[in-house]
Amino acid sequence: MIKYIEETTEFLQKKGFENPEIGIILGTGLGQLINEIEVIKEVSYNHIPNFPTATVEFHKGKLIYGKLGGKNVIVMQGRFHLYEGYSLQDVTYPVRIMHKLGIKTLLVSNASGAVNLNFKKGELMLIDDHINLQGGSPLAFKGVEQLGSRFTDMSAPYDVDINTKLESIAKDNNINLHKGVYASVVGPQLETRAEYRYLKIIGADAVGMSTVPEVIVANHLDLSVAAVSVLTDECDPDNLKPINIDEIIEMAGKAEPEMILLFKELIKSL
């Protein structure tokens, strides 16, 4: 993997991805932040050596370098998931590349379902902690200790100072920002009624199919991390209706401007 990381990093450096400070991963239906960026360079994933390729139709599949809030940023417009058939090492490979290029902070967004029924679709949730239900670890491979500590501490995977700033920005802008626990499952099937009840019992406030692997690797690399979920549906097991993916994407789009405002204001303050 070290050889692959060096090859990919060298390719992107030659393309002009120079001295980035912040990495951003944009989740399902959450690509409009790109419109706020002064784009300097962009490369399709399928042109980057050793990079996976996004296969989900609403994930664009581009790595973008530019300026936002006076900072050099790298943005993943489209991410990778276990349910696409990738390994956890594939899913998290871009985080390792962004770190090798120089980022110190990683910001993550996702679309998720509200398990906590006090949270409503169209609202945002700041991730305070997570539960890994993906059945594996992106650090469970031979030679991982050459890239960072094998036994990575996860007592506080989300940066407390950054989360405090995000809560303050939300308050100043009248954004209803919940705080809670995100559970990450494999997917791609949605949850059963019994599974939603189980998630509630174990302490999850929201559920999705991403984010946790990237956050684990970011902690492995000593990056500061923050993540925001856009709540796109309400997961009430007693009143569960068939899921409509188009409605989920539409709801993500409606809530996205608030997430963009949070990220923009945060980046200015970092």
UniProtKB/TrEMBL annotation:
Residues 21-268 form the Nucleoside phosphorylase domain. CDD domains: PNP-EcPNPII_like. Pathway: Purine metabolism; purine nucleoside salvage. It is an enzyme of class 2 (transferase). InterPro entries: Nucleoside_phosphorylase_d (IPR000845), Nucleoside_phosphorylase_sf (IPR035994), Pur_Nuc_Pase_Ino/Guo-sp (IPR011270), Purine_phosphorylase (IPR011268). Pfam families: PNP_UDP_1. Keywords: Glycosyltransferase, Transferase. This is Purine nucleoside phosphorylase.
